[in-house]
């Protein structure tokens, strides 16, 4: 289990214990967190799992694949340099303690 902290647009923070290999989106949806929808179930086809990754962790994430890059063009809230899809972020030792901020809206 590794920790992931999600901070919503209102500034409310929630830390989840996420099994290795599980995506941030899956963990957030399972925990009933508002602010992450995950409409496509994690296939990088909907962009409703958009998050802003804390700068301290930017270098630890693998670069986004072309499909993720394309979907990041379709986010409901502003895309930023640190925008990523939560379904493509998998829990691992390298990302233990990851902090992300949620956008104002996903749809
Ligand atoms: S859950 Fe659909 S793109 Fe991430």
UniProtKB/TrEMBL annotation:
- Where does the record place the 2Fe-2S ferredoxin-type domain? 2-106
Iron-sulfur listed as a keyword: yes
**What keywords were assigned to this record?**
2Fe-2S, Iron, Iron-sulfur, Metal-binding
Q: Which GO terms describe its cellular component?
A: cytosol
Q: List, alphabetically, the InterPro entries matched.
A: 2Fe-2S_ferredoxin-like_sf (IPR036010), 2Fe-2S_ferredoxin-type (IPR001041), Adrenodoxin-like (IPR001055), Adrenodoxin_Fe-S_BS (IPR018298), Beta-grasp_dom_sf (IPR012675)
* GO terms for MF: 2 iron, 2 sulfur cluster binding; electron transfer activity; metal ion binding
User: Quick one: a GO biological-process term for this protein?
Assistant: P450-containing electron transport chain
Q: Which cofactor does it need?
A: [2Fe-2S] cluster
What family name appears in the similarity comment?
A: Belongs to the adrenodoxin/putidaredoxin family.
What is this protein's record name? (2Fe-2S)-binding protein
Lineage, highest ranks first: Bacteria, Pseudomonadati, Pseudomonadota, Betaproteobacteria, Burkholderiales
């Amino acid at each position: 289990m590794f920790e992931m902290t999600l901070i919503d647009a209102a500034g409310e923070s929630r830390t989840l214990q996420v099994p290795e290999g599980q995506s941030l989106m899956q963990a957030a949806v399972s925990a009933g967190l508002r602010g992450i929808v995950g409409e496509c179930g994690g296939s990088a086809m909907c962009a409703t799992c958009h998050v802003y990754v804390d700068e301290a962790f930017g270098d630890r994430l693998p670069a986004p694949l072309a499909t993720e890059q394309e979907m990041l063009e379709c986010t409901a809230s502003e895309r930023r340099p640190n925008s990523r899809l939560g379904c493509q972020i998998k829990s691992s030792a390298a990302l233990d303690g990851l902090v992300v901020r949620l956008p104002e809206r996903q749809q």
